[in-house]
Design a protein that fits this description.
This protein is an alpha/beta fold. The protein is built from 12 helices and 15 strands. A 7-stranded parallel β-sheet has the order 3-2-1-4-5-7-12, sandwiched between helices. Strands 6-15 form a two-stranded parallel ribbon. Strands 8-11 form a two-stranded parallel sheet. Helix 3 packs parallel to helix 4 and helix 8 runs parallel beside helix 12.
């Protein structure tokens, strides 16, 4: 790698990938919607634009020999077309840019949710099929994009898709602050059984997986045209994971619970209200969230270890210490 394009380089995962690449002496260009003064100070070339705009993506990719496509529209609520434009059209533009500029490597950030069917996922591997029905627009559009990336793999463009689960760590703008804010407001509840094991991924491990994938990727490489689950390989009960995050923020453990079926019913009702009144904010509960919080989600990482050389560098306990230090600065 000499010069990499990172989409969403200003985001949580994207910026960590950028910094790891910079440490290796690789020139970086980031395509993102907002500015990043901190990345500019590090010598990153920032191009502001929307990945759903083909011309912008084609121009941004010129002169690069690898693309890390991290940018996506995440969440569990919103118009399908918005998800489609960002996640599917945006990914098509990235693939077109690779072909236009003869870029040889594409690393795509996917999600384990693309195979979630609303049931327990216990030690599953990459042979798990896509569900017959998707529960959210995010799931469906990420699955469509993942399939496009894998199908684009050929003799001139090597592609790989990574599925990191529940990324957290210092600077996390999603999982950690959501848990902390709801706990402080007295609105945090454990859903369903307390024994459902859940994998999570420290930010450094998620970023490292992308670097390793780029290094392993080549035409006809074992990882070319494939997808891989990524996690800390330390599944914990959902209750324990949440309470570790709360402890890092010096907050008391959560013990209040709500039955799965009640959470599901509340989610269904909230979705109905939000649709009727065309509310844009994300509901505090949806059917998808109820199922996510009450099901097991842990994965067999054998393929990532064998094909990418993936190994966890930051354990959950080490990561929680770093998180605590960052939250108490």
């Amino acid at each position: 790698m000499k010069k990499a394009l990172v989409t969403g380089g200003g985001g949580f995962l994207g910026s960590r990938i950028v910094r790891m690449l910079l440490d290796q002496g690789i020139a970086i260009r980031s395509l993102q919607r907002s500015d990043s003064p901190e990345l500019k100070k590090l010598g990153v070339e920032i191009i502001r634009g929307d990945i759903s705009d083909r011309a912008t993506v084609i121009n941004a990719a010129e002169g690069c020999d690898v693309i890390f496509h991290v940018a996506a529209k995440a969440g569990v609520w919103g118009d399908y077309d918005d998800y489609y434009q960002c996640n599917v059209t945006g990914t098509k533009n990235i693939i077109d840019a690779c072909q236009t500029h003869h870029i040889q490597k594409l690393i795509y950030t996917s999600s384990p949710s693309v195979v979630f069917a609303g049931k327990d996922e216990e030690n599953i591997n990459e042979s798990t099929p896509y569900p017959d029905q998707f529960l959210t627009a995010y799931q469906k559009t990420k699955a469509l994009a993942e399939q496009m990336v894998l199908e684009a793999n050929n003799e001139t463009l090597a592609t790989v898709a990574l599925r990191p689960h529940l990324i957290w760590g210092p600077g996390d703008p999603h999982l950690v602050p959501r848990i902390i804010e709801r706990a402080k407001a007295g609105r945090l509840r454990l859903v369903g059984k307390q024994s459902n094991l859940v994998d999570s991924t420290h930010i450094d491990n998620a970023a490292l997986a992308h670097i390793l994938a780029a290094e392993a990727l080549a035409a006809n490489a074992d990882c070319a045209g494939k997808t891989y689950f990524i996690s800390n390989d330390e599944p914990l009960p959902m209750k324990e994971l949440i309470n570790k995050i709360l402890a890092a923020a010096n907050l008391p453990a959560i013990t209040k619970t709500i039955p799965t079926q009640l959470a599901y019913t509340i989610g269904m009702m909230m979705e109905l209200v939000y649709k009727i009144f065309k509310l844009k904010d994300e509901p505090i509960m949806t059917r998808f969230i109820a199922k996510q919080l009450s099901c097991a989600h842990w994965y067999d990482l054998t393929a990532a270890k064998n094909d990418l050389g993936y190994q966890v560098k930051v354990t959950i306990n080490e990561g929680m210490e770093r998180l605590k230090a960052s939250l108490n600065k």
